[in-house]
Specification:
Layout (H helix, E strand, L loop, with lengths): L2 E2 L5 H8 L4 E2 L1 H4 L7 E6 L5 H12 L6 E6 L11 H7 E2 L1 H4 L4 E6 L15 H14 E7 L1 H11 L3 E16 L13 E12 L1 H6 L3 E7 L3 E7 L4 E4 L9 H11 L25 H17 L8
Helix pairs in contact: 1-3
């Protein structure tokens, strides 16, 4: 089944070339099914890239998905054109009375700041509180995961001695959980962050469960309240070259940046990286949409 997108959204052209099933409003209105309404709070600076990353995964399931993009009202993005934001994004004030089947809260380049010093923190707290009554399941990614762990469960983050940057091996801690159904015993996933959380703090919290972890990268996938809240500390949604773009961006700025671990062939940044986590990215998002959104959400929200 398709993902429904506006005709003029730039990510649409990218996804259509990859044979992702897309339809517009006119065709979607003729479908006699109950589509899923997914809200994406995009806190990343290059919003169009993040849109393509997420839509590629949301558009590869048997479900029709309506996408709604959310921006902060208390902070104006400097890396995305005002025209793009005006055309495709809305603010929390405009949707706070609505119900959504699922929501994604992305990462943000503010991880070295205390949460309370982030310009839009109070707005994000209001949104995270709202998700508990207005969203069936919320997926938090990277800094978004750390923000959720801190706000909902009091789990603090700490600064790493060096950036967690590269492709790391992960194990499945609980194979009975549907979110990881079909996962290999060991699989790869990208990470890119300067901060982390302590696994022992999560294990002590009775409301949290670690579903997957890495010896090198720590706790990776966690959930609470039967999947109403899901936290992922890495970036399964990344494309093959995303970490390379990040590495070269910092290198060309003259910053002391390390080569991503286990990423470039022969550890040579001149060699194009290969995507070795794509299947698990699709599987994770498919499982989330099916088991925690579609199977759990009411046909009609009251």
């Amino acid at each position: 089944m398709p993902i429904k997108l506006p005709k003029l959204l730039p990510a649409r052209d990218i996804l259509e070339k990859e044979n992702i099933f897309i339809m517009d409003d006119e065709r979607a209105s003729q479908q006699d099914i109950r589509p899923l309404n997914i809200l994406i709070l995009n806190l990343m600076p290059e919003k169009e890239k993040t849109e393509a990353h997420l839509l590629r995964l949301l558009g590869n399931t048997p479900l029709q998905v309506n996408i709604h993009f959310l921006k902060t009202a208390t902070y104006e993005s400097k890396n995305t054109s005002p025209y793009h934001l005006e055309q495709f994004y809305t603010t929390f004030k405009e949707i706070k009375e609505k119900k959504f089947d699922g929501m994604i809260i992305t990462g943000a380049p503010v991880e070295n700041m205390p949460f309370e010093q982030v310009e839009y923190w109070e707005e994000l707290v209001e949104i995270m509180n709202w998700t508990k009554t207005n969203v069936t399941s919320t997926l938090h990614i990277c800094w978004g995961a750390q923000a959720a762990l801190y706000h909902h469960f009091g789990i603090h983050k700490y600064e790493l001695p060096e950036k967690c940057f590269g492709i790391f091996s992960h194990i499945v801690n609980d194979r009975s959980e549907k979110l990881l159904r079909g996962f290999d015993d060991i699989y790869l996933a990208p990470h890119s962050r300067h901060t982390d959380v302590v696994m022992e703090d999560i294990e002590k919290c009775p409301d949290l469960k670690i579903l997957s972890s890495s010896e090198e990268a720590g706790a990776f996938i966690m959930y609470a309240n039967g999947g109403r809240q899901i936290m992922i500390t890495g970036h399964l949604e990344y494309e093959a070259q995303t970490l390379a773009e990040e590495y070269w961006r910092d290198f060309n700025k003259g910053l002391a940046t390390q080569i991503p671990v286990n990423y470039f062939p022969d550890n040579n940044p001149e060699n194009p990286a290969l995507n070795r986590w794509r299947c698990h990215a699709h599987l994770l998002f498919s499982n989330w949409l099916n088991y925690y959104v579609y199977q759990a959400t009411p046909f009609e929200w009251n």
